[in-house]
């Protein structure tokens, strides 16, 4: 990495906060709107599988745009990308706050997805480029805090706003934050890396779109339709074929959109696996626990949001703490500690699933999220530090892309397991049994995480 002064300038901090605030707004909308789905279904006369596209279209667009981040960063100034991204996001928010129909609402969400897809990698690129090595872990943790606290407060905020003001205010209330982000970004974002002339391979773009369209669509239907149907099996097969073709094409291009040669670095590949499985577990939890609180314990969506909120806040707070531990102790200790807390929490949840009170859910989930908070930023930092500096933008593109897909996959798999149990039985007990089975799957993932950590995460951070 380039030599840097040990102090962090005010402009660099402003740039990180600006890009982080925009990502924060993107996650807030996603998690808050889930609570408003019943009202949207009633107001616009759409079914459950249609209203889910409020989330699916957003995640799909983000997953398609994020892989382009390395090319975009090479061709365009960082400030130009940021202003374009936030302008699109503000446009999408205005459209959604005034949408006369559900399809206009979806259009707004798609435009927001383009903005988020452009901006999401910017914050971590700025951190890796402009933060001194001695403070890298802490600032990566701070970046994860900004985006990590959004899922914690999103469901509760969505419940309060929808109940008291109406769902349109979920979008309206974001506008002041987006304007603050815009002004901070215009003032603070600086160009530190030289621009390069790189060509955009349109065949790769098409293959990326087919890959994620097939995967997201297929897995989103997993809990409702047979695996052998074209909506699930056919869509996933189409996505897999496109992904294989994308890999083959990328290996023959000098400057591919996604450079799969990075995975010949076994340390980076192992970190990516840890990151992917951790994200799957976390989004699986985000689906399982609120549904358990509502369907098994018989509480409202607002109560469910309040029960899980302390854990989300705890996880966000421990993100910079985990980063600080990385700076002092190296990556392995905070990562092993975090994974250990995750494993212990899942064991407890699996044991008590059939009789969980809201209080026990709140308490045990705090331990899980604290562990996850310690891990995520540390794993990202250690993964990118395992690459040469000129490959870190590509590595960041992979991590941000897989984060979106892992969330969709984790939610879909846990939803499928619970749905299978509900079909075999009825009432709260069937949901509880399905939740227990899903916890067993998540525990297997955590065991895989622990084994991989032991094999690939170094004791000290060595940047190339």
UniProtKB/TrEMBL annotation:
<feature type="transmembrane region" description="Helical">
    <location>
        <begin position="301"/>
        <end position="323"/>
    </location>
</feature>
<dbReference type="InterPro" id="IPR011701">
    <property type="entry name" value="MFS"/>
</dbReference>
<feature type="transmembrane region" description="Helical">
    <location>
        <begin position="362"/>
        <end position="385"/>
    </location>
</feature>
<feature type="transmembrane region" description="Helical">
    <location>
        <begin position="268"/>
        <end position="289"/>
    </location>
</feature>
<feature type="transmembrane region" description="Helical">
    <location>
        <begin position="12"/>
        <end position="30"/>
    </location>
</feature>
<feature type="transmembrane region" description="Helical">
    <location>
        <begin position="50"/>
        <end position="72"/>
    </location>
</feature>
<dbReference type="InterPro" id="IPR020846">
    <property type="entry name" value="MFS_dom"/>
</dbReference>
<feature type="transmembrane region" description="Helical">
    <location>
        <begin position="397"/>
        <end position="418"/>
    </location>
</feature>
<dbReference type="Pfam" id="PF07690">
    <property type="entry name" value="MFS_1"/>
</dbReference>
<feature type="transmembrane region" description="Helical">
    <location>
        <begin position="438"/>
        <end position="457"/>
    </location>
</feature>
<keyword id="KW-0813">Transport</keyword>
<dbReference type="InterPro" id="IPR036259">
    <property type="entry name" value="MFS_trans_sf"/>
</dbReference>
<feature type="domain" description="Major facilitator superfamily (MFS) profile">
    <location>
        <begin position="11"/>
        <end position="461"/>
    </location>
</feature>
<protein>
    <submittedName>
        <fullName>Multidrug efflux MFS transporter</fullName>
    </submittedName>
</protein>
<keyword id="KW-0472">Membrane</keyword>
<feature type="transmembrane region" description="Helical">
    <location>
        <begin position="335"/>
        <end position="356"/>
    </location>
</feature>
<feature type="transmembrane region" description="Helical">
    <location>
        <begin position="230"/>
        <end position="248"/>
    </location>
</feature>
<keyword id="KW-1133">Transmembrane helix</keyword>
<keyword id="KW-0812">Transmembrane</keyword>
<feature type="transmembrane region" description="Helical">
    <location>
        <begin position="101"/>
        <end position="124"/>
    </location>
</feature>
<comment type="similarity">
    <text>Belongs to the major facilitator superfamily. EmrB family.</text>
</comment>
<feature type="transmembrane region" description="Helical">
    <location>
        <begin position="166"/>
        <end position="186"/>
    </location>
</feature>
<dbReference type="InterPro" id="IPR004638">
    <property type="entry name" value="EmrB-like"/>
</dbReference>
<feature type="transmembrane region" description="Helical">
    <location>
        <begin position="198"/>
        <end position="218"/>
    </location>
</feature>
<feature type="transmembrane region" description="Helical">
    <location>
        <begin position="136"/>
        <end position="154"/>
    </location>
</feature>
<keyword id="KW-1003">Cell membrane</keyword>
């Amino acid at each position: 990495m380039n030599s840097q002064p040990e102090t962090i300038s005010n402009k660099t901090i402003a740039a990180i906060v600006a890009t982080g605030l925009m990502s924060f707004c993107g996650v807030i909308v996603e998690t808050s709107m889930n609570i408003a789905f019943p009202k949207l279904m009633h107001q616009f006369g759409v079914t459950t599988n249609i209203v889910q596209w409020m989330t699916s279209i957003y995640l799909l667009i983000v997953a398609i745009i994020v892989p382009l981040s390395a090319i975009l960063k090479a061709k365009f100034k960082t400030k130009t990308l940021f202003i374009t991204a936030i302008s699109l996001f503000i446009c999408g928010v205005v459209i959604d706050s005034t949408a006369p129909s559900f399809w206009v609402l979806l259009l707004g969400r798609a435009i927001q997805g383009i903005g988020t897809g452009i901006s999401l990698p910017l914050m971590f690129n700025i951190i890796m480029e402009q933060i001194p090595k001695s403070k890298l872990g802490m600032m990566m943790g701070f970046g994860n805090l900004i985006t990590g606290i959004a899922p914690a407060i999103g469901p509760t905020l969505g419940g309060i706003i929808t109940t008291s003001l109406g769902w349109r205010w979920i979008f309206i209330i974001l506008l002041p934050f987006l304007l603050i982000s815009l002004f901070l970004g215009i003032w603070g974002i600086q160009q530190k890396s030289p621009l390069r002339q790189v060509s955009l391979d349109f065949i790769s773009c098409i293959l990326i779109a087919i890959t994620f369209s097939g995967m997201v669509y297929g897995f989103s239907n997993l809990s409702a339709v047979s695996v052998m149907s074209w909506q699930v099996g056919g869509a996933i097969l189409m996505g897999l074929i496109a992904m294989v073709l994308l890999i083959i094409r990328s290996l023959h291009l000098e400057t591919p959109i996604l450079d799969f040669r990075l995975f010949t670095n076994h340390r980076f590949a192992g970190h990516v696996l840890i990151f992917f499985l951790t994200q799957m577990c976390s989004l699986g939890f985000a689906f399982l626990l609120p549904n358990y609180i509502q369907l098994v314990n018989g509480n409202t969506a607002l109560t469910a949001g309040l029960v899980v909120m302390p854990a989300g806040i705890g996880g966000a707070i421990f993100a910079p703490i985990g980063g600080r531990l990385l700076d002092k102790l190296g990556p392995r200790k905070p990562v092993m500690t975090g994974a250990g807390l995750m494993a212990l929490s899942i064991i407890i949840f699996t044991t008590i699933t059939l009789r969980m009170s809201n209080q026990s859910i709140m308490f045990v989930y705090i331990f899980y999220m604290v562990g996850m908070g310690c891990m995520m930023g540390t794993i990202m930092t250690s993964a990118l530090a395992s690459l040469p500096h000129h490959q870190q933008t590509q590595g960041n593109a992979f991590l941000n892309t897989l984060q979106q897909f892992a969330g969709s996959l984790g939610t879909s798999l846990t939803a499928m397991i619970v749905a299978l149990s509900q079909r075999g039985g009825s009432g709260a007990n069937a949901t509880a049994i399905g939740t227990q089975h899903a916890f067993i799957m998540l525990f297997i993932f955590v065991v895989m995480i622990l084994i991989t950590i032991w094999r690939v995460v170094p004791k000290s951070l060595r940047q190339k």
